[in-house]
From TrEMBL:
All residue ranges annotated as the SUF system FeS cluster assembly SufBD core domain in the record: 177-406
Protein species of origin: Cyclobacterium qasimii
Protein known as: Fe-S cluster assembly protein SufD
Pfam families listed in its UniProt record: SUFBD_core, SufBD_N
Protein family (similarity comment): Belongs to the iron-sulfur cluster assembly SufBD family.
One BP term from GO: iron-sulfur cluster assembly
Residues covered by the SUF system FeS cluster assembly SufBD N-terminal domain: 6-167
Length: 435
């Protein structure tokens, strides 16, 4: 295939000319070939496109990354994990990825409560699942991941399984001075009547530029209940795109909590497809940005059937020259009567140079629904600040208390106590550094 030479395709050319990751076993060659064709046709998004009008990650990658070929893996990854505080404080099933490559020997062995397969071991029916929820035409970076991933995993939570301990999904990332491009891929299948918590963290070994382009798909069967917690606390040279999509069957629940604290430019796309009745989709996020950090959260909830509910709350605290973007969409289809859908985005700007772009949206075709959306952007409540200071609390301590109360509404959505405590501690530390 001849790659387009249009200027907008410069990044596509670099990826397609340096990577040859068509699956050697032939299992996923159809998906990878289709992804390559899609990239060649569409290119990557620019500021001219509505969905990326505030986030020019295409240019940032070109400016920062000099290497596009498959990344090298880290040799001493076991020592790295032993030295990480959060990794060692969390008990549970641990799945390790080394620059995107699944490390079966370092990961927890299955005890029957869940099953992990590398994509190379999938059967023909399982192969068809990959790319069926997060399709290559939803986002160009999904297509890039579909073409470039080398070692995806499929996680099966069997019917009726109730995992008492969480699954900890850990990415260990390392790069040299030329940067690195890493494309983690995972597919989760939660069987009927199952319950599980997945906690996702990333460990960076150096400060070199990294482009981390992740795709996750969730197939959640009837009466399954999944909690997904993700911590983005990397370093200032991280460029990241995350595409996460879930399908919910009857009586299912999917709860996402996202904490974004560090990174040069991060784009998070989260979609929940409510495909049956009595489902609940929850989306919560807190982004605390300083320096020149840029975080863009795009969410999408699609209500297709009646008697379901979605709750969405994203909160931002921005200082210095940071920038936050929130774009939330709720669709209520004609057949989705008796839907309850709520969306809220609240922000506090602590600097005159901080920027926030927010766009909550509702599209409703049903007439018997309860839906609301809204956003607020402002500064700290001066009356509340005065109240605390009048009772002998110093200015900086009073400010931290108010900001923590603001963030706490999202942190309270984390039900795993050890992980919640860790997140509370790093939020306290971040707030204590704000002047």
């Amino acid at each position: 295939m001849t790659v387009s030479t249009k200027k907008d395709h410069q990044l596509v050319e670099l990826f397609l000319s340096t990577q040859a990751n068509l699956d050697k076993s032939g299992l996923l060659i159809e998906l990878k070939s289709a992804a390559k064709s899609s990239l060649d046709e569409t290119g990557f998004p620019t500021l001219k496109e509505e969905e990326y009008k505030f986030t020019n990650i295409n240019k940032r990658i070109l400016d920062k990354i000099k290497k596009y070929a498959s990344p090298n893996t880290v040799n001493n990854i076991g020592d790295v994990l032993e030295a990480n505080q959060l990794f060692n404080s969390l008990e549970g099933y641990k799945l390790i990825r080394n620059n995107g490559v699944f490390e079966a020997e370092l990961s927890s062995k299955s005890d029957g409560s869940f099953i992990v397969k590398p994509f190379s071991d999938l059967n023909s029916d399982e192969v068809k699942e990959i790319g069926s929820i997060e399709t290559i035409n939803k986002d160009p970076f999904t297509a890039l991941n579909s073409y470039s991933f080398e070692s995806g995993i499929r996680v099966e939570i069997p019917e009726g399984a109730i995992l008492e301990q969480p699954i900890l999904l850990v990415d260990v990332i390392s790069a040299d001075a030329n940067g690195e491009c890493v494309h983690p891929r995972a597919y989760f299948h939660a069987g009927k009547n199952s319950q599980a918590t997945v906690i996702e963290i990333t460990i960076f070994l150096d400060e070199s530029p990294v482009f981390l382009n992740e795709v996750q798909e969730w197939n959640i069967e009837s009466n399954a209940h999944i909690r997904h917690y993700k911590l983005q606390d990397g370093h200032k040279a991280e460029l990241g795109v995350s595409n996460t999509s879930s399908n919910l069957a009857r009586d299912a629940t999917f709860t996402s909590v996202l904490l974004s604290l560090n990174g040069e430019m991060l784009r998070n796309n989260l979609s929940i497809n409510i495909n049956d009745t009595n489902c609940t989709g929850n989306m919560y996020g807190i982004y605390m940005l300083n320096g020149k950090t840029h975080v863009d959260n795009h969410t999408n909830v699609d209500h297709k059937m009646p008697h379901s509910e979605s709750n969405e709350l994203y909160k931002g605290i921005l200082t210095d020259q940071s920038r936050g973007v929130f774009n939330g969409k709720i669709f209520v289809r004609k057949d989705a009567q008796k839907t309850n859908a709520f969306q809220q985005n609240n922000n506090i700007l602590l600097s005159e140079e901080a920027i926030l772009n927010t766009k909550p949206q509702l599209e409703i075709w049903a007439d018997d629904v309860k839906c609301s959306h809204g956003c607020t952007t402002g500064q700290l409540d001066e009356e509340a600040l005065f109240y605390l200071r009048a009772r002998g609390i110093g200015k900086e301590s009073a400010k931290s208390l108010l900001l923590y109360a603001f963030a706490g509404e999202v942190l309270d959505k984390i039900t795993h106590e050890t992980f919640k405590k860790y997140c509370e501690e790093i939020v306290h530390e971040r707030l204590g550094a704000i002047k």
